[in-house]
Amino acid sequence: MRGFARFLFGRRARLRWIHLILGGALAMPYVFVGEVVLGTATGAMDFGSSPLQLASFAFGLPVAALTSLFPLTRPLEAGAVRWLCGVDADRLAYGPARTRAAKGRTAAWFTLHLGLGGVISGMSLAVPPFAVVLIVLPLFARLRGIGGWLPEVMDHTWALALAPVAGVAMLVALAGCAAGAGALLARWAPPLLGPAPEDRLAAAEARAAELAVRNRLARELHDSVGHALSAVTLQAGAARRVLGSDPEFVREALAAIEETTRRTVGELDAVLGVLRDGDTPGTAPAPTLAADLDGLLRRVGAGGPRVTATVDADPATLPPLVSREAYRIVQEGLSNALKHAGDQVAVTLRIEVVGEHLEITVENPLGDAAAYRPGGGHGLRGIADRARLLGGSAEAGASGGAWRLNVRLPMKGPA
Prior knowledge:
The protein is α+β, with helices and mostly antiparallel strands. The protein has two domains: 2-195, no CATH class; 203-410, Histidine kinase-like ATPase, C-terminal domain (Heat Shock Protein 90, 2-Layer Sandwich). 64% of the residues lie in helices and 10% in strands. It is built from eleven helices and five strands. It has helices spanning 2-9, 11-42, 50-67, 73-85, 100-136, 157-193, 197-241, 247-275, 289-301, 320-341, 378-389, and strands spanning 306-312, 346-354, 357-365, 393-399, 402-410. The chain has a five-stranded mixed β-sheet. β1, α10 and β2 form a beta-alpha-beta unit. The two termini are 66 Å apart. The model is unreliable at 278-283 and 369-376 (pLDDT under 50).
């Protein structure tokens, strides 16, 4: 019983009733147009007559279906359905109807909304006053003769006793009709106002593009900031150990720290500029092998590790995309070697062109297992993602007492 009462008079039922009343209000201009057109055509200018009103209502619905082709109809109707009918937002489409099928579904929905809304609005105006009169009729005898609109049967005692029951039944029936019509609209809203397959495909492509941008920004932040923090930590530690014995080394380490942090702040500003709504990206250029390979090796070597680099390729001739991604791969490979193997190991870097591929190899001794730091794992995943996006491959693992990272990038970039 409580569930039935909630279905008739609960908050959702009341909101759906409001939605139907709005549909009736939207139908009124079309009804007026129908009255003018039909009244002029037939000569029946009695606008208060029921036949003319019904005919005008039937005439106005097709006109409403035509006006539903305006682009704003579906977004406005979808917003009203979401808030008043309780339909989940992801089951509705909020953009204008583009295809012929979507426009047809929107026209069908608009006609259904205005049709049911007009009927329920008319009932909501006519039924409550009559029902209230029936409810209070036994208490006010003079109401029985008003305008002669109550039947003579009301002069009988049994009819007066049943009049309040009939009035309450009429109100409950009105609530039931409104609740049923509201539930029907909520049931048909997703098929008629929901996204079509092409809308879902466009939304999925937009989400995939946004996710790809976010993943790229995450890789850039991880590689740039993570490498900078690892390099600065190693450089500061090395400078602290020889602070009193080798001032020249300390000056070089501090200079490397300054340069590393300055470049990283510029790169961080460029990446964060993409994340700020309405802000332009930073102007710091993306680092490449041609622009900063020597600087990268100098900054890494300032922290103490011995980096032996062999470059059998001209960085200036590499495609810009390959050069940029290769720089990040070298940066992350050296950062992983320093972070996990320590600053006293010898790191070997080799960059060469083999056929139509650029091969990058970073190798360092495993050394004492206690020197390795726990955690991590995102760097190698980011390297693999960068190689895969270019159509290349990446392999990493321990072999023969050394840790080896090997990456192959096609010179022509992704297909």
